[in-house]
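[SOLVED] Need 3D model of a two-part complex

Original post:
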Amino acid sequence: MSEVPSTVALVGNPNSGKSTIFNALTGKNQRVGNFAGVTVEVKTGETYNPHGKKLNVLDLPGCYSLRANSPDEKIALDALNGVLPGSAKPDLVVCVVDASNLERHLQLALQVIELGLPCVLALNMVDIAEKSGLRLDPAKLSEELGIPVVPMQANAGKGITELKQALRHPFPPPSAATWKAGENERREFITRLCELAARRPDSEQRTFSDKLDSLLLHPFLGWVALIVVMFTVFWAIFSFASIPMDLIDGALGSFGGWVETLMPPGDFRSLLVDGVIAGVGGVLVFLPQIILLFLFIGLLESSGYMSRAAFLMDGVMAKAGLSGKAFLPLFSSYACAIPGVMATRTIDSAKERLVTIFVAPWMSCSARLPVYFLIVPLLLGETEGSWKQALILFGIYALGTVTAFVVARILRGRLGPDKSANHFILELPSYRRPQWSYIFRHVIDRAWAFVRKAGTIILGLSILLWALATYPKTDSEDPGEILAHSAMGRIGAFIEPVVKPLGFDGRTGTAILTSFAAREVFVSSTAILFSVEETDDDVETRSLLRDRISAATWPDGKPLFTPLTMVSLLVFFIYALQCLPTTAVVAKESGSWKWAIGQFVFMSGFAYLASLLVFQAGRLMGF
Amino acid sequence: MTSTPAARRTADSQLTLNEVGVNCDVRISSLNGPACERLRELGFCEQMQLRKISNGRNLVCTVCGAKMAISRELAEQVFVSPIR
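Solution:
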């Protein structure tokens, strides 16, 4: 079996069902590759043809043409020409087209055929085409194009076997294109071909999608629907996620306790329990939220609603110098900036994409919530949960969002226009029943990426933070004193002059410092720094912690946490980019560490200045 | 010959897609502007029939079975003639 497997590339417009066919062909045997310098993914997988020969399958990014207008198109063209590093020139190309939309999809197919590679046309979504009254003639299409045509309904698994049959060796010869290369010639050929092989009914009747759109794109009702949908998603993420999150939290707590009973006390046990389990666990707790968020995004995308939301939001986003396509990434960032930054891939304009990535971390993410839940009740002198707290929480979200929009606008203006004008073009696909298999696969991919990150970057950082908080050691038993003696405590004392103008002491400064890798660490660091025993119940821990920090004083006896200090602290957390995984993802997605570090420095500086301004102005006003 | 949209329109008695009423069926007679290549790839080709669904900041129309939202600047480059 020394024979090199042939390479088959899948090419098609966005929304043509290419990924569904790819998944059906390759099953579990796939992996996602990123190519250096670019951020568009090409999936590769393996399948076997009916003769049992292994085939490598490339899923190229969805594109409208091979003119290299966008990063996706450049990748697709390079892959087809065999110049994409790390992938072989395809021996056969499967052009996936939406049968209900042949006039458009054939544009790309003809360009691919012109490259002179053997081709097979996967005529997908024949069910939708026939339902809309289109009369298809695959045999005629095949005859005119000179390549095999396979009618398919990939989301129902129909036509996959026939497609595999078409991938038999020897591959069909390249078609001798009967049309002349060129935009006009291609277009005329397609018009003629569609007259012959895909006749449209003359009368345009209103489909179900049209009726639904008259509601969902309505200038008033459309907005009501959008708000209801988004509110439901938010509510579901926050309320459903808390159940598995509590379970994970509890399980990690008992696991830590179990490890503690197994080992004698010592540095190694402390490293495992307080460093590794607590650190990685603290991040894994957010897994349910991320899974739920991607589930909803998958649902909204696969049903066709997401593009309606982008359409509605275009006017609002334009005020920030962005387009409707930036809506989904920014919206996702409310849950977590990481998927948000990854979702910017759908934005055509490179500069708009960079700006969206830049401001995404200011959409207040869920990791900030533990901090807000700690501070906000303290600010009001209440226990957790009241409408006033909800109002403040809303204000916090609004402040982050408005600042993000203002900065986006300024930044977009400074970056200047794109080299080629990018107009708003958005396809509004017909509403479809969600494809669960696709959604689940997508969710699992993302969840796994997150877990992997927790296992690498966050693990490393947890160990580093643990070491800083543990060494050098002292004989004291008091956790507060141990920490004060440690490297971390000394750094805290050292930075006190830096954070004092914001109203914080060295302990708060240290807690902020520890939270630079992951902001939610602030709560557990504060607990250690103010010597609060952590209990199994988060709410109770926070309540104990609130009692303790509201009693904390400066050496001269003045209270440490005045309302003004707390507002200053909140402002700091709204603006600071304290999330190492986000910085890593930004570097990867923007293709530049400079951009990622610039963002980190800018946001940290902005947070510092905003916090300074609040505290100093507040003091001048006598608070 | 001047080449302002207005002059072209008078010469060819054509409308741009922006000027057509909602729910009108029209046929694309020509494309003129920097984005025509892109428009053609998306199915806005000469002789293609389309129906305008809504107006606004971005307008919605169906062209060869697909529903597309395009900006007003793009629609300004699409010249159409009413079918009926």
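Edit: The beta strands of chain B are 15-16, 25-31, 49-54, 58-63, 66-71, 78-82.
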